Amino acid sequence: MFAGLKGALQAALSTSDEARKQSQQMLQALEPQPGYLSSLLQIALETDSSGGARELAGITLKHGCSKFWKDLSGEEKAHLKSELLDKIEAVSTDGVAVHLSLCIGRIARTDFPGQWQELFPRLMQKLGQTSNNSLCDVATKRILYVLHCLIKELASKRLPVARKGFQELSQQLIPAVWGLFCRSSEQVAASLGPGGAPARPDALLLAQVWLLCTKCMKRLLVSGFPPDAKSFEVHSQFKEIVPQTLEVLKVVHQRYVGASAASAPPAVLRGMLKILKLLRDLVDSHPWSFSVVEISVPTLEYLYFNVCSSPDQGVTSLFVEDVCMLSMQVLQSIMRSPAYRSPLDREADPSRRQLVEGAQQLLSNFFSAERLDQMTCTVVGVHMTLKAYDLEKWQAEPEEFHHENDLGNFNETLRSESEKLLCKFLETFKGQTISTLMKLLNQVQGVPQGGADLQQLLLKESMYNAMCLAAYDLHDSVNFKMFFESQLGNDFSFQREENKIIVRRAAYLLAAWVADVPEEMRPQVYNLLMNQLLPCEDMVIKLAACAVMRVFIDDWNFYEEQFHPFLHSALRNLLLVIQQAYDFDSQVQAFNVLCLILERMGTRVKPFANDIVAMIPDVWQKAQDQSLLKIQILNAMHRMMQCLGASSVATYNIVIPLLQYSVNPDGLESVSIFEDALLLLRSVLQFAAELSPQLAGMLLFVTTHMQRSTEYLPISAKILEAYMLVGGLPILQMHGATVFNTLLEVTNSVNSRGLTMVTPVLDIILQIFPPTDLALLEGIFFTLLNRLGDESETDEALIHIACILSRLAVTNLAYFLEMLVKYGKERCGNEDVLFDRLVYVWTEKAYASSSSLKRKILCVGLILTLDTKHPSIISRMDCIGDFLLEVANEFKLPNSLDNINVAEEWHEGEDVDDYACIHSQGEEDPEAVRRSRLWSADPVNKAQVVGMIQERVASGAFPLNNDEFKERFKLLSS
């Protein structure tokens, strides 16, 4: 087995696909055999095997322990544990050692402490032996990494018993780990010589050992004690450990800045950051232990020092960007901690009240007005400013610069952390922060427009950025209209190349203060955006203008008449951005604004439709596999169909190929783009005069989507409904079998809400389908009758079912009765039960519907059923009378249904516009016209309810036994 396993691992590293496939099959075949994991460990520990095979063996062993450990024999488990602990410090390759250490951690998660009690005693014994010789030893590093993996794995367990066990274990480990941390800290600080001094040969290994000690201490302190947020129990050990750890950090920080580049390994910086993360996590997990004066005061002073430091202090600067960023995070954790912000009157216990009061007083003393002013000035004036590398990236890669800085940066940067800290200052110390910001604003307002140097421009840009973040808080302190007229309006000038820095931020300032831009000033803003910023050659300015334009168009106070004079310029420049941009994110952003303009301006964009549609094929072809961009293209075309209305037929040569690719459920990108493609197809059908062969063929795509998932049933059902309205009987003759099978499957599987989405399609089919061929729908009718008797169906679903059965009675009364008798005998043994349920739904549930159309269909179907004089119906005439009379009185007025909106009546209660989106403005909707024509030709509409009842009362067709009903029918007839 050993030789075969070794060969399979070596084959898995081959460049041949066939060899890798065979090795995978060999490994799967060897997995169940005894000794599989032991052989993997033997290969990983070999010295003569290739490094790749040994590391792959370690990876496979790690996953194998997670997968097969419970199935192993006791002997093999014991062998693996013993070998791993005995041989781990002798592993020469870091990659193999990492995976074997992780393997030990995963085994310990299952077996410790019950089946592996000797784990930590042996490990600490080995650690003591190796560290006594030297900390700069690979064996010490290996043991520490194993310890780190074990602590991390066990600390992640969440059951109370496991957490208590880890806390007990931590008390045993802290003394030894703390001693190693102190020793390694002294040696690391000593190894960081002044600039130019030669680095120690073992500096890298020493820094890695120190980093591992720091990681272990962080996990032991944070997870090794019960959280004190609710218990208010201050952990006494923190008073000694945390201040000393902070002193270590200060010393290493100072030596790190003064050290030469060669003598400061990356692990030193990572260790410093790990200590800062320890402080941050202590605030979250143990706020009261952290609030002790011995811990919190020096920590806050150190954080303040880091935030207020800057790289422009020359040789005395101790600024380290990563340290500064993390210091800001710790400050934010302290300010947002719910423990320190709780009201004093909530705590009745004197000791707890004293803790809360002491913590709040301590923070109040630290965050004095002077300190807040200094931190705010440094954050805005130093840390939030654009740096030299930002400006270089602006010139070299403008689109990437825009997306990193203006559309949300997923990576934490000094500027993003500074912005978060400023927002936290505004939230926690609003008055003092606003006072400082107003002082800075007055300073930058005094900078001359044309004579400002680069540093002054950067400071002004940063101050405008702060105004964007503080727009809500500065609302009462800044008159934005006066500020625009006196200052901001003059900043939109390209007199110098450097002015672009201010132009970009001034545009974003307009967007942030959009609520304060008065209506009469908006045309001036539109003129700036359309005629100065969008035509600019700088792509960063163009994209910034797109972002600002979107905010103004999407604003509550946007008025189409004001924007209309700038519409042509906006569309022309947006199309240029789409064509000139090389980044797909830029094209997506421009398309997003374009779609919003199409939605808000409606038919006003018709004169420019040809230019918009003409560029679609080229952009679609360049999009390749960029699904997000294709979604925006489909969305834009969907909006364009709504704007063009009936004239959208002219775009079919472009739209149809897009739909054939996008709607196809088996297409390469179907999962990501077909939803937007369905919306586009819905718009095309809404305004189609007839079905082309290509458009008709897409019906099969829609039915496939309906069969595969009900997630998009609302839009799919409306598309199917539109196909029936446009195609009529010919589309059913072509694809009727597929449509009927799909409807049968859907009605059998969907819930009540889904059923109400499908029944409008059945109603149209019954109106256009030959009455003699209704047997093809028998399965659907049987399903509806089955669901009619289900007590769990909602009233809305029952009404829809009854409406379809009433429509069936109007279409072919004989077939309707035949269906009732046949189903009643098969399922109920007697049709009387079914008739009783149907009459109950007809007469009682109809009151839950506010739809006049549905009540009329139900009434006519009931009257026609009464004409059959079926005993089960006639015997219930007393309960039927009230319903008939109420509906008849509702429609007694002449022309009561002449102006009915058939679509709204059928889709009562549904948010139709979510799926049909906007309707064409200024012209009649072709789909609405087709519905109204179908309605005017409907026999239900021709046979008025009142006339039908009056006719039957006069002929004595109703066997009325109640004198009261006779009098009411007489009044109706009069």
From TrEMBL:
Lineage: Eukaryota, Viridiplantae, Chlorophyta, Chloropicophyceae, Chloropicales
Subcellular localization: Nucleus
GO molecular function: small GTPase binding
SUPFAM superfamilies: ARM repeat
PANTHER family: IMPORTIN-11, IMPORTIN-7, 8, 11
Domain Importin N-terminal: 23-90
Principal subcellular localization: nucleus
Single GO biological process annotation from the record: protein import into nucleus
Protein name: Importin
Signal sequence, renumbered to the chain: none
Any one Pfam family match given in the protein's UniProt record, by short name: TPR_IPO11
Keyword flag Transport: yes
Keywords on record: Nucleus, Transport
Family recorded in the similarity comment: Belongs to the importin beta family.
Superkingdom, taxonomy of origin: Eukaryota
UniProt keyword annotation of Transport present: yes
